[in-house]
Amino acid sequence: MLADVKKLEDAGKRLAPDAVELLLSVDKEGVVRALLENPVPIISADAVLAAIAEEGKIPQPVEVKRASGFAPISKEHSPRLRVIERQDISGKSRCTGTIEDFVEHFQDRFKRVGKMLKNRISANPVVETERLKENQGKGVRLICMVAERRDTKKGDLLLTVEDGKGTAKVFVSKREKCFLAAKGIADDEIIAVDGKYADPFLIASEITWPDLPVVRERKHAEEDLAVAYISDLHIGSRHFLEKEFANFLSWLNGKWGDATLAGKVKYVEIGGDIVDGIGVYPSQEKDLVIKDIYKQYEMFDELIVNLPDYVEVIVSPGNHDAVRRADPQPIIPMELMKADVKKVGSPSLVEIEGLKHLIYHGTSLDSVIAGIPGLSYNRPEEAMLALLKRRHLSPLYGDNLIVPEKQDVMVIEEEPDVLHMGHVHKNGHLNYRGTVVLNSGTFQARTEYQERMGHIPTPGKAYVMELKSGNLNMVDFGEPGQG
Ligand SMILES: [Fe+2]
Ligand SMILES: [Fe+2]
Fold it and tell me: Per-residue confidence at 160, pLDDT binned at 50, 70, 90?
C-alpha cells in the first residue's frame, strides 16, 4: 500500500524500486512494522520478502537438546507436593454476584483480616465504632475498613471508616509521625487505628496493617532440590520468546548452562498467562501468530512434554488464559490444556517440600500500583509486599474484577514461605519476615503496549530457588549457554 511506503520513507528508509513494487502488493501491518524495526537504512526486495515470510510464519516446535550423561539428583527423589484446597476456588464457585453475595464476601474479609489485627499487640483496648463515644478522651484501637479517604485543604487526612457496627471519622494530622504511613492507605482496606477519641473524631496516633508477625524464621527444606518459577509465556503471541523458552527446556535436560543447578530442579511453577489468548484486548489479532485458543494451548502441551518426566509442573492461570477473567480464577480446563501437569487456581496455596507457596497471577497489581502512592511497575516486589502486609491479594475494590465468593480466598490467611506472582513481566524479589517474595517475569518480548506505557520488562529470565540452602538464583535464558 502507498501509505506503507510513505510511512517507511518518513522514517528515513530508502526503498529499492522492486521493494516498493512488492510492498504495494501486500497489505500487512506486521510487514511494515518488521521493516521499521530493521536497522538497515536501505530496504531491498529481499528484506520485504523476509518480512512477509516472518509475518506468515507459524511457530514450529522448538528444538530441545538433551545431554546424555546428565544425572540429576532430583530424579532420585519422589515429589512432595500438596495442594492446600481451601485457597483454591476451582470447582467450588457457587457465587451468582448478588448484593447479598457482596455483603457476605466483605463481611468474611473483614472478619478474617480483623482477627489478624486483633492478635497484634497494642497498648489500647479494641473498641467498636458504637462504643467510641463512651471512650471520650481515652486511648483506643479501632479495627475498621476504610470507606473513604480524603485530603483536607490544610493537608491533613480524613478517613471515613466502618466496622459492621457503624461508621466513624478518623483524623490523621500531617504533624503526626504516623502520617507518612497513613498516606499509603487506600479505599476498602482493613486497618487498625490507635488514637484518642475526641468527638466526633478519632485522632490517630498509629496506623497498623495486619502484616506478618515480626519474628518469623525462614523455612528450609530437607532435600537439596529446587523450584524454577516462571510465568507469562504468552504462547501464540508473536512476541513469545521461543528460543529462550527452548533454552529453559534444554537446561532442565542438562544441555544448556549450569547442569548442577538444573539437576536440582524437581518443580516448575508457572504463574499464569500461559497463552496470549484471544480477544483479551482490542486489536489483539495483529499481535498473534496463533489465532486459535486450542492451538495456543496445544503448543504449550508440545513444549512442556520436553521436560524430564521426574519434574513436577504446577500451572496456575492468568488474565490471558481461557478461564473467567475475575479473581479468584479456577484451573485451566482439560479440553484446553492436556499436558500432564498439576493444575491449580489463582490464587492457590501449594506445599512443596514442606514450604508453603502462595501462587497468584497478580492481576490486581495494576490497581495496587495505581492506587497506593510510591509503588511502580519497575519494582513489582514492593507492590507484592504491599499485598502481603495487607494480608489480601486484591485489597482495593473496583479496578480489579472479583467474584464475591462467600469465603474471600484472596485473604492471605496463612503466612506463605514463598509468594509467587507474575503479570507485570518484570522480575523482582525480596525477603520479608521469613517470606520470599518473587515475581517471575516473562517469556514474552516487549510489546508495543508496554513501549507506550514505558514499561521495561525482563524477558527470558527465571528465578530458581534451592529449597535447602534458600539460595535464590536467576538464570538468564537469553544468554548463550555452554551446552
Ligand atoms: Fe502477562
Ligand atoms: Fe497477566
Answer: very high
Considering every ligand atom shown, identify the ligand nearest to the alpha carbon of residue 425 and give its number.
1
**Cell output for 389:** 502486609
Taking the centre of ligand 2 as the mean of its atom positions, its distance from the CA of residue 364, in whole angstroms, is 9
Report pLDDT digits (tens) over 67-118.
788 889 999 999 999 999 776 777 777 777 788 888 888 899 999 999 999 9
How far, in Å, is the centroid of ligand 1 from the Cα of 363? 9
In CATH, the architecture of 73-93+215-476 is 4-Layer Sandwich (3.60)
Every domain of the chain and the residues it spans:
2-55, 73-93+215-476, 121-208
The answer, as to whether pTM is greater than 0.90, is no
Looking at domain 121-208, what is its CATH homologous superfamily?
A: Nucleic acid-binding proteins (2.40.50.140)
Identify the nearest ligand to the CA of 232 by its number: 1
User: pLDDT per residue over 174-220, tens digit each?
Assistant: 999 999 889 888 888 999 999 999 999 999 999 999 999 988 889 99
Ligand closest in space to the Cα of 365: 2
Residues near ion ligand 2 (CB < 5 Å) are 273, 318-319, 423
Q: Which ligand is nearest to the CA of 450?
A: 1
- Output the CA 246–ligand 2 centroid distance in Å: 22
Residue 30: φ, ψ to 5°: -60, -35
Q: Is 321 helix (H, G, I), strand (E, B) or coil?
A: coil
DSSP string, 419-481: EEE-SS--EEEEEETTEEEEEE-BSBPPPHHHHHHT----BTEEEEEETTT--EEEEETTSPP
